[in-house]
Amino acid sequence: MRAARPVSWLTPARKSFEGFPEDAREIIFDALSIAAEGGKAGIAKPMKGLGSGVFEIALPYRSNAFRVVYAVQLGEELWVVHAFQKKSAHGTKTPKHEIDLMKDRLKGLKEILR
Fold this sequence. Notes:
By secondary structure, the chain is an alpha+beta fold. The protein has a single domain (7-113), classed as RelE-like (YaeB-like fold). The chain contains 3 helices and 5 strands, in the order E-H-H-E-E-E-E-H. The chain has helices spanning 11-18, 22-36, 96-113, and strands at 7-9, 44-46, 54-61, 64-74, 77-86. The chain has a 5-stranded mixed β-sheet with strand order 1-5-4-3-2, with helices on both faces. A hairpin with a 2-residue loop joins strand 4 (64-74) and strand 5 (77-86). The longest helix has 18 residues, at 96-113.
């Protein structure tokens, strides 16, 4: 079995995540642990439009939708770059402002890790 990679968080993502309900955080932590060990949880999927190695954990929880976006191809760590509660009542599409924020955070992180 492969050794688990460390999971690192961008500070804004960690702060947002801490506001999630405790049960939702536990489920998402389990999914991140699977990713850190080289697997992919059933609630994780590739995040389109953000490049290779970027995944989204999509958790429907008590009529809410929680999302955590992480990157596995940045250095030796698994990086959590964004966490948010999806508020839109219509459709599953992630709002553009959330996508733009993720792109900016990934770009900044890549520059720091060079």
